[in-house]
Amino acid sequence: MSELHLNLIAGQWVGAEDTSENRNPSDPSDLIGVYASGGADDVARAAAAAATAQTAWFEGGPQPRADLLDRIASMIEARAQEIGTMLAREEGKILPEALAETRRAAQIFRFYAGEALRVAGEALPSVRPQVDIEILRAPLGVVGLITPWNFPIAIPAWKIAPALAYGNAVVFKPADLTPGTAHLLAQIIHQAGCPAGVFNLVMGSGARVGATLVADPQISGISFTGSVPTGRGIARAAAETMKKVQLEMGGKNPMVVLDDADLPLAVAACLNGAFFSTGQRCTASSRLIVQAGIHDAFVAELSRQMQALRVGPALAEGSQIGPVVSAAQLQGNLRYVALARDEGCTVIGGDALGGTGYFQSPALFLGADPAMRVAQEEIFGPCAAVIKVDDFDQALTVANDSAFGLSAGICTGSLRHARAFKHGVKAGMVMVNLPTAGVDYHVPFGGTKGSSHGAREQGRHAVEFYTTVKTSYSYAG
């Protein structure tokens, strides 16, 4: 029997009524472990423990919070190989990418160790004599964190670290598909000396654990990363208890390639943005908008390099793209490949590769029209639609023709076009001669339109979600 991995509630490792198996998408016969799957009662106990512990955690001052986050960062670094291997094994990300993500998580915790000591306020004179005003930031209280499977340590890190840094207590629900990495992170937070109840892990389904988190009156805020339908449902449900919400959802990110682009640079940026991490990134370049003069040469070279990518098991040396995360995700991707053909695209690649895992060759949909479903709907797989345009103005119009607005990129040698794109594209993040995927941890992350709702994540802007503003007046007369 595989060891049962437990939830962490009020500083104790506890079981749940149900369990779930965690299997390797590179080889589904590989049982990684069995994990507790909690329910409403577990969430209620975790929220109560967090509410009890939060006040002392905040009132203890910023130094213990900074010290804890710094210890967590060091422990992640010390166990990076173990964590990265787990991440690759359960999510399908190739090992170099998994190790890089693990190191990024450590950097995030260390960054917020410093931020815990830099929570700024304001002092202003009143319009009334002998009255002073202080504008301070106070923690929300208890926050519920719901994270996706595609970045199973980086996204939890950039939610948990600021939540703790600013004096909140946490109830953390990781994705069903990747409980192993989350459990290792929870172990580290516990072993680093986090006070009982300040951090709680409740694994389980979104329908039970996630929905109960959103409904629990003891929880003051929900930070969620996942699908658009789920995010919208959370926003509606959170309104019932007036919770603060932060939602990061989908993307259908455009990468514009103009005639004056450096061809090797443009191909490298699109290859990375569209297909690395198996295309399972909300910032992936899923719409390649290419000017007519460079189109044929760009498509020929990108197709050649794409077809040369080595798809294989995540832990195998030499693999450049791992498996799709699950059988359901693979079947969804394949339906979009078939749809692209039905809509009139010429499809290069996109086949299921067979074998024991959920492997798919990367795909280009040539001759796509902006109105096609494959050019409008998020696929979340190694698939990119190529749309030919006549000039920059048309490229910008097509780039903005989306319900999403997370990340957008342009490859060009023209400063004028780069500047016009940065100002004109409707996206929260803009890349010039860089892949649309790949962001730094010390600056804001988030989008516009259907991609994001609420305050930005990451960097110093995270304080906007995890705290509330308190204005104090003092009379000195």
TrEMBL record:
Domain Aldehyde dehydrogenase: 13-471
Keywords noted in UniProt: Oxidoreductase
InterPro entries: Ald_DH/histidinol_DH, Ald_DH_C, Ald_DH_CS_CYS, Ald_DH_CS_GLU, Ald_DH_N, Aldehyde_DH_dom
One Pfam family hit: Aldedh
GO terms, molecular function: oxidoreductase activity, acting on the aldehyde or oxo group of donors, NAD or NADP as acceptor
Leader peptide range in chain numbering: none
Stated name of the protein: Aldehyde dehydrogenase family protein
Source organism of the structure: Gemmobacter fulvus
